[in-house]
């Protein structure tokens, strides 16, 4: 059971008027600016966190000191025959002669010895379902605890020997490494439980603090129970199982309450939350009143399972109302946690049917379960940050829980030996983990199935479009990121930044639009909400991928511009060569022409050459200037063929044409006029050019002999016209003109962007 304590994305605050998602700070990768700068406004938070760290360290130190000063009998035990404890080693002189003997009972000064076995040495009875067995173990542990506290312990061995030993403090060295590991883990969970609400103070994060602190307390109880010795301190022997169950119940209640408010506020959440806490409080009151009487274990586990199932149902309801990826991810975590709890509860319910030599293994369940649940709670604030260590730790803890549960079930149901069941359960659990590990990661965190080929296809297509129409860079960037991340929502918003960042704890990805063109209103960010159509949260890997995509887009544009510069320089060189060589030869030929007609023809050819070289060498081609050159060129060519030209042009703007556009339109007009001269024998040609809101339309009509254009063969001439028009995104069509002649219609929808186009 888990929730995202930092998620602040509400359905009513998708993209507010400011353009950026509301509440886009998080405690991990995007700390509030005031916290980073150390302003007085949030200085108290750092002080509070420092105080919490001091309190946590002091708590661990006092706990360690208390356990180090707790009375102890220096002896090492192992499980012998019939679940008896066998003395392995002791530095005490009174016990050295009893090495290898089996312990029968433990008593004290004024205390009657009671039977004491390996199951009693396992301190926690949290997962013991049999009331009679739990009561026997409780009596044995209480007797041992009182004897240690009184300072005189009586050990009765199976051979009838009786040894009285004075207990002494165990010291820090004998606390064991597991105590320090679990205490350190508890400290981490405790501090994260403070960091989350301090960075973002709101109700959801305070509920997360309740969960984290409850699980930190659970880990400290496990740390105490891991200390080797005959018994826990007297005050914990009876209350420890009750405290463990109650802490889990509080965690479950906090989870249920949180999913009612975040990320979507569910209807009736107030009444539902009140009912949840009333049931939890009633269970706590009944537990304290009955002090773990029969059926208390079953009621406690039933409460936890009901809370888990209710959490899954609430998350499903929330996801049906709004496809928030966090809800989907947390529902998967919750389902895995509930299944692990159900399997563990089922396995330990068979403890009384297991052989005595296997029953102590069931007592390891509390520690495994606590580590698993605490790791899930600790993972929640980092779920969108893809912290691999925490994710793997939580998964391995879950696999350990499953392995222990399967081992106990094998022993109870199939009567396997301890070695056989342990080997088989480990083999099956690790094999299943290796087989479905990637699937589990994909189910928990989400997976992107975009191929590299598809990504680069989109990338270079967008690069070409941005190069042709740079003022649409924001729209093209949004389209590219849509194809890569498949968000539920994407839009161009205000803001600025150099690197991509995550907002809403993974709900929103903010990608800065690079400075592709010198247009002020294009500076902003693309905001993507809910990756893969709401199936997963954004992660730092997504942010790095977005930055790499922007970088590759800039490189593609730089490459295209470098190629275009090379082409421009080559065109200028060719134009210069044509002007200097061919132009000089034509000029000489014109003066040596044998007739007036030949001289005029060469003069027109020379004029065409000058137009061509001027166009090749020009860096800019304003539409009005290009149209004047087209009109002059067409007039000269048609006059030579004794054909009259009627020219009509109307432009609502004077955009600058690219070299490709200028060259294509020039060659289209020349080829169409050449066809009229060569094939139509026309006496009149009318050319109309219109530019309206970026749409270029050219209409050429003649009164020649051409008919039935649908049966024409499209060779190099007409085929070349079609290719050039298509390259500019347009269409070309030939029609019959009445009473005679042909009409050619060229339509280029996006020659230039409309004057009113906004990015």
TrEMBL record:
The keyword Kinase applies. Coiled coil: none annotated. The chain crosses the membrane at residues 48-68, 178-199, 271-290, 302-320, 332-351, 363-383, 395-416. It comes from Ideonella aquatica. Residues 665-752 form the Histidine kinase domain. The keyword Iron does not apply. Residues 1-15 have a biased composition (Polar residues). Pfam families: HATPase_c (PF02518). InterPro entries: HATPase_C_sf, HATPase_dom, His_kinase_dom, Sensor_HK_TwoCompSys. Its EC number is 2.7.13.3. GO terms for biological process: phosphorelay signal transduction system. It catalyses: ATP + protein L-histidine = ADP + protein N-phospho-L-histidine. This is histidine kinase. Keywords: Kinase, Membrane, Transferase, Transmembrane, Transmembrane helix, Two-component regulatory system.
């Amino acid at each position: 059971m888990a929730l995202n304590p930092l998620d602040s994305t509400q359905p009513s605050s998708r993209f507010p008027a400011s353009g950026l998602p509301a509440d886009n700070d998080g405690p991990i990768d995007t700390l509030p600016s005031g916290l980073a700068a150390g302003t007085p406004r949030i200085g108290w938070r750092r002080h509070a966190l420092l105080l919490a760290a001091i309190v946590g360290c002091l708590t661990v130190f006092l706990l360690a000191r208390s356990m180090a000063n707790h009375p102890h009998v220096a002896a090492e035990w192992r499980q012998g025959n019939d679940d008896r404890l066998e003395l392995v080693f002791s530095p005490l002189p009174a016990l050295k002669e009893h090495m290898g003997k089996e312990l029968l009972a433990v008593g004290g000064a004024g205390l009657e010895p009671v039977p004491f076995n390996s199951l009693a040495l396992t301190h926690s009875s949290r997962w013991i379902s049999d009331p009679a067995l739990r009561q026997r173990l409780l009596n044995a542990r209480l007797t041992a605890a009182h004897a240690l506290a009184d300072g005189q312990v009586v050990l009765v061995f199976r051979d009838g020997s009786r040894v009285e030993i004075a207990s002494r403090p165990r010291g820090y060295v004998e606390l064991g490494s597991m105590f320090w590991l679990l205490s350190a883990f508890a400290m981490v969970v405790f501090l994260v439980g403070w960091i989350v609400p301090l960075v973002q103070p709101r109700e959801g994060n305070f509920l997360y603090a309740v969960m984290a602190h409850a699980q930190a307390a659970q880990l400290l109880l496990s740390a105490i129970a891991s200390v080797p010795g005959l018994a826990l301190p007297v005050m914990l022997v009876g209350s420890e199982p009750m405290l463990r169950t109650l802490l889990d119940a509080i965690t479950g209640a906090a989870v249920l309450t949180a999913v009612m408010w975040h990320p979507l506020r569910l209807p009736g959440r107030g009444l539902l939350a009140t009912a949840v806490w009333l049931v939890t409080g009633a269970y706590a009151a009944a537990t304290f009143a009955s002090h773990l009487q029969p059926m208390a274990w079953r009621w406690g586990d039933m409460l936890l399972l009901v809370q888990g199932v209710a959490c899954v149902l609430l998350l499903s309801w929330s996801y049906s109302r709004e496809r928030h990826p966090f809800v989907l991810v947390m529902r998967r975590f919750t389902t895995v946690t509930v299944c692990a709890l159900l399997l563990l509860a089922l396995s330990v319910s068979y403890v009384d049917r297991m052989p005595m030599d296997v029953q102590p293994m069931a007592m390891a369940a509390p520690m495994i379960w606590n580590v698993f649940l605490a790791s899930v709670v600790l993972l929640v604030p980092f779920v969108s940050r893809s912290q691999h260590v925490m994710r793997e730790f939580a998964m391995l803890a879950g696999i350990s829980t499953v392995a222990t549960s399967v081992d106990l079930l094998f022993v109870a149901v199939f009567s396997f030996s301890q070695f056989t069941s342990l080997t088989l359960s480990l083999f099956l659990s690790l094999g299943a983990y290796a087989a479905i590990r990637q699937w589990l990661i994909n189910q928990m965190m989400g997976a992107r199935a975009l191929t590299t080929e598809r990504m680069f296809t989109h990338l270079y297509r967008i690069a070409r479009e941005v190069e042709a129409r740079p003022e649409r860079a924001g729209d093209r960037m949004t389209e590219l990121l849509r194809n890569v991340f498949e968000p539920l929502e994407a839009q161009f918003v205000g803001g600025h930044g150099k690197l991509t960042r995550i907002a809403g704890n993974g709900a929103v990805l903010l990608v800065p639009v690079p400075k592709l063109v010198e247009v002020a209103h294009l500076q902003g960010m693309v905001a993507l909400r809910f990756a893969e159509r709401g199936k997963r949260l954004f992660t730092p890997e997504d942010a790095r991928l977005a930055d790499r995509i922007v970088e590759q887009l800039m490189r593609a544009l730089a490459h295209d511009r470098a190629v275009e510069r090379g082409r421009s320089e080559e065109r200028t060189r060719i134009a210069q060569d044509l002007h200097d060589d061919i132009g000089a030869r034509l000029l000489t030929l014109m003066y040596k022409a044998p007739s007036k007609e030949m001289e005029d023809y060469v003069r027109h050819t020379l004029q065409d050459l000058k137009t061509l070289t001027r166009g090749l060498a020009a860096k800019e081609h304003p539409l009005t200037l290009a149209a004047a050159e087209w009109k002059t060129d067409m007039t000269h060519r048609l006059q030579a063929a004794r054909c009259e030209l009627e020219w009509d042009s109307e432009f609502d703007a004077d955009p600058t044409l690219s070299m490709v556009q200028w060259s294509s339109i020039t060659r289209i007009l020349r080829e169409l006029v050449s066809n009229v001269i060569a094939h139509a024998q026309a006496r009149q040609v009318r050319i109309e050019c219109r530019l309206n809101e970026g749409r270029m339309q050219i209409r050429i009509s003649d009164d020649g002999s051409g008919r039935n254009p649908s049966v024409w063969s499209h060779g190099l001439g007409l085929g070349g016209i079609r290719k050039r028009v298509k390259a500019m995104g347009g269409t070309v069509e030939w029609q019959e003109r009445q009473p005679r002649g042909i009409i050619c219609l060229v339509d280029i929808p996006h020659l230039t962007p409309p004057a009113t186009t906004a990015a």
